[in-house]
Structures are given as structure tokens and as C-alpha cells.
Specification:
Strand content: 25-35%
Distance between the termini: 40 Å
Order of helices and strands: EHHEEEHEHEE
Shape: globular
Largest sheet: 7 strands, mixed
Strand order of the largest sheet: 1-2-3-4-5-7-6
Structural class: alpha+beta
Number of helices: 4
């Protein structure tokens, strides 16, 4: 396990974020995108999330200064009644996976989302075969809510989507303030 520093993402992190995400799009099933977005698009996505008050974090390897992974929370759905719920996304550099980087990013993301007043976090995990991602979320207190069968087609096969959910702060214990 490498020593990490987790901090808010900045525009200077876009090249590393773009590289990590491109690998996930091209070789994995965590994202249902088919073509990886370029740096200007990734920068636009970062700006949009930050301007709307969502947390966006990077994990930086201590000593190396290299980005090991990133995580962010964004709107679960666009309609106003969903404004207290966020969807999380976590991506780790391919050569650094299975070193608890995703777990550390998710723990900090949960803290940051709670601090901003969000009350529910939803994980929409691409592909039911993504057992490491499912385990990371379960370890952070997420509950399996359901599986949508064969809703995406990528890399020549049908993919499920696994839904997991975790209350933040008081969750649904009281109306939002």
C-alpha cells in the first residue's frame, strides 16, 4: 500500500485524471462511455462539479507527486427533489489498483459530501463483475439496493449496473435543512 495525500482536485490535475479515465473507458467496464473524453472536456466536467458545490478529490502518492486516483460526487439526478443525493465515482490508476486507494478516496469523499450537507450517496457500479468496487462500497457502509440486468453493451458483452446506497449524516432521519 502506498502512502497518499488526498486533496481537492485542481485544473493542473486534468492531464493525470484524463489519462486514468481514458484507461478505464478503453479497457474497463466501470464507465459506460465508449470513447474517452479529451482534456478540455474533463476540465469542463471538473469545473462544473466544483462550481455546483460537489467534492472532487485526487489521491497523490507521497514523495512521487503523481496522481494515483481520483473521486468525485455529482448530482444523482437533475430534478430538484434529488438535490440532497449524490452519486460517487472513483477511478484509480491501473498500475495502483488493489492497494486501498479507492477505499481511502471513498472515505474522504463521504466526509466531504456530508460536510456539504448531502444526505444520501448512491453508487452506480458498471458491471456486476466489478467485485472490487462492490467490496470497496460495502466496506464503506453501502448497502446493495438492486441490479439492473443487461442495461449496457460494451466490449462485446451485455453489462449490468449494480446500485448501492449509503446514508450521509442523518440521512432520511429528518427533512433536509
Amino acid at each position: 500500500m502506498c502512502t497518499l495525500s488526498i486533496r481537492p482536485a485542481a485544473a493542473a490535475d486534468i492531464p493525470a485524471i484524463t489519462t486514468i479515465y481514458a484507461h478505464a473507458v478503453e479497457h474497463g467496464t466501470a464507465s459506460f462511455e465508449i470513447e474517452p473524453p479529451d482534456e478540455p472536456e474533463m476540465a469542463r466536467r471538473l469545473r462544473t462539479l466544483l462550481e455546483n458545490g460537489y467534492p472532487y478529490l485526487v489521491a497523490e502518492r507521497a514523495g512521487a507527486g503523481a496522481i494515483a486516483g481520483y473521486a468525485y460526487a455529482g448530482a444523482y439526478r437533475a430534478r430538484p427533489a434529488y438535490r440532497w443525493s449524490v452519486e460517487d465515482s472513483i477511478y484509480v490508476a491501473p498500475d495502483l489498483q488493489r492497494q486501498r486507494i479507492g477505499s481511502q478516496l471513498l472515505a474522504r469523499l463521504i466526509e466531504e459530501a456530508q460536510r456539504r450537507g448531502f444526505l444520501q450517496m448512491i453508487a452506480v457500479i458498471g458491471d456486476s463483475a466489478q467485485t472490487p468496487s462492490i467490496a470497496v462500497h460495502a466496506g464503506a457502509g453501502f448497502t446493495h439496493i438492486g441490479t439492473l440486468r443487461a442495461v449496457g453493451f460494451k466490449h462485446g458483452r451485455w453489462l449490468d449496473t449494480v446500485l448501492m446506497q449509503r446514508a450521509l449524516g442523518r440521512g432520511a432521519g429528518a427533512p433536509p435543512s
